[in-house]
Amino acid sequence: MTIDQIVDLWPDAAQLLLVVRGDSVFDSRLLHLLATQSSPAVLVDSAVPSKFQPLVASSPNTLRAKFCGAALLQRDWVSTQSGPLGKAINNGLEQNAIAAVDVSDQPSYSPALRRKLRPFWFPAPPPAHVKLAERILLNSVQKGTQDFPARIQAPVETFLISKLCKTAITPNQLTVSWIALAFGTAILFVTGHLIGGILLALIIGILDGLDGKQARIKVETSKTGKIEHWFDSFFEIVWPTALAYHFYVSGQLPNAFFYLALLIVAEALDGIGKLGVYLPADTPEKALIVMAFWEVATAAADLLHSCWIRYVHRRQSFPDLPLG
Question: pTM value?
């Protein structure tokens, strides 16, 4: 696109204009960073990681850095230029008329994903590098701080989302699907069909991860999608309640509701503890460290409590058994 074409399409002469290559992929953090600049700036990358090199090889070089294909421009300056946009931006950088915003200087931690992920960008890849581009995009929607089941489910979710992202299935449709199945799981638990309920719960665990990934990879996130977090918390109470009801009614555990109350109180304290970590922590990294030790303490308490319950059950079942 030429400078003259951009000037003719400028919506408001008094405003800075964000110009982005239409054939490129950008981490949303980079576009947000560029859009919040108060003066003309251009996005460059002076230290492209080796795994990205095949994807950005065709991007032009400027001032010993790769031009990423996005810039925030001012009409008064653009009006004094001519020819292709890329050449004008290169001249602006050399003349210090435009500031360079370097991708390599940006923090790699992503609060949304709760893990480190270097901000990425690349033009639409040639056929030979499509698979590499897909791997980068699929990796960019995986959240961190996974528990043990999530680590097992993650590869399955990644495989499924690589197929689902090419369909018309929406994130909200996936959310509605797992919520409906979750109610079915509660019914199975209440009626004592534990194996069926557990198998269905494992399937729901995968579906619950797919809707968020589908939303992020297809850029279809919405406020409505945040409702699923409420349902996550809802079923964390409903499922144990259904199990407690079954064990109480069947007589397998007369004190089932006592342990249910204990579990709910522990969950509430755990939530308060995590909230207390997020609020005062200076950086997300510190919050993760404290949460990790909090989880270790929680696991230790759970294991001790489990051993105590087994000991009490053993003493009740075999009262004449020696203490050793």
Answer: 0.69
The rounded distance, in Å, linking the Cα atoms of 125 and 138 is: 15
DSSP 321: S
Cα–Cα distances (Å) from 150 to 142, 157, 267, 304, in that order, read: 11, 9, 19, 24
CB atoms within 10 A of CB 13: 11
* Full 3-state SS string of 220-262: CCCCHHHHHHHHHHHHHHHHHHHHHHHHHHCCCCCCHHHHHHH
Name residue 249's amino acid. Answer: V
**Coil, helix or strand for 288?**
helix
The CATH architecture of the domain made up of 141-231 is Up-down Bundle (1.20)
Residue 314, CB half-sphere, CA atoms under 13 Å: how many? 10
C-alpha dist (Å) from residue 204 to 235, 237, 249, 311? 11, 16, 26, 34
Give per-residue pLDDT as tens, 22-77: 899 999 999 999 999 989 999 999 999 999 999 999 888 887 799 999 999 888 88
Distance CA 66, CA 68 (A): 6
Return the structure tokens found at 258. 């006592």
φ, ψ dihedrals at 123, nearest 5°: -70, 165
E strand or H helix at 162: helix 148-164
CATH 1.20.120.1760 range(s) for the chain read: 141-231
CB 39 within 8 A of CB 99: yes
